[in-house]
Amino acid sequence: MSLLDFLDRIFGGKDEVNLKTCSINTKENIYYKTLVLEASIDLIARALARAEFKTFENGKQVKKLNYYLFNVEANKNTSAFVFWKETIKKLLRNGGALVLLQDSQMYLADSFTREEYAFLENKYSDITIGDYSLTDTWYESQVLYFKYDNEKIRAAIDGIYKDFMKLITASIKGYQNSKARKGKLKIPTSLPKGLDGEKELQKYIQETMRDFMDPGKDAVYPESSGFEYTELYEAKVSRSNDSGRETKNLVYDIFDFIAIAFGIPPSVLKGDMVNTKDAVNNFLAFCINPIAKLIENEINRKMYGYKHFSKRNYMKVDTTTIKVTDLKDIASSIDILNRNAALTIDDILEILGKEPVGGEIGSMRFITKNYELLDKVLKEGSVNNYSGGGG
Q1: pTM score
Q2: Which domain holds residue 7?
Q3: SS (H, E, C) 210-267
């Protein structure tokens, strides 16, 4: 971050020597957009990978081969968690992800060519999985293709970042100027032997001053042969701390814009702890659930189809497992749903993250005696009619 300017045109007339600015650049450029984009994508991918893929037969949840495939082992080499995490990342980065179904296993394609048709099945060719290239053509009914239209979002992000990068660059330069050491070096009219040329003099100055200007070293500058160095303290900018905060705020603005583009509450992406509950609920509602629905629909139409779906055989992506809830926060709600017969014993156990007991006990429902069907009450004449007047 240090920036040293050696100024002065020294001497006059024929003895004048023109020196270039001597500078030491100690910091590489930071790719803020890449940081925020990857943080956003990774957050969404990790969240969705925690979702549970529930499978149903005749409207009842079952845990058979498809459940194992979606939730435990996608293929012989990849767990379901890693598989869905990588699939979501590819979907968000590229706008589409291709999954091949073969021998009751799922494989994520690294690259492919897609040919779209209006009234025929789309074709997929030039497919690669890792270092392996497939020579055959796959059709729409043989694959899961998840499409996430993010071209407009990407264009907007690129435009916003381009404008903000100008502001950030200017802010960083201001901060650098406020922290840099600046000085002037007085050079004698008769140069030491061997320093007759501009290049030799430039090299001598840089080598002599490098350690002296390094903020990480304790050093003394040896003034010799008529060279005199003077520190320019007035070059320091008095509002240096403001410049640093300004840069930080501009970077946070990039976090905000990119988070909003993905439907992520900015506070969730930045890890703020204020209003966490509402922020997480919005994250699930406006970012995670739409992507989960996209995945759910593709699986149901390809792996189940209308025939099975109409018989209540289907798959459902349950995103409620993503949110970490405290038992104290849900105890009252569970009690109300339990006494209204909305939940079975097994339903409650699953909400609590415990193993269901199954059988008749697991499927039991309870209802408080305070509730009764209105028509039954009327038939039994148990409604107390109130008539005005004295006793």
Answers
A1: 0.69
A2: 1-27+183-231
A3: HHHHCCCCCCCCCCCCCCEEEECHHHCCCCHHHHHHHHHHHHHHHHHHHHHHHCCCHH
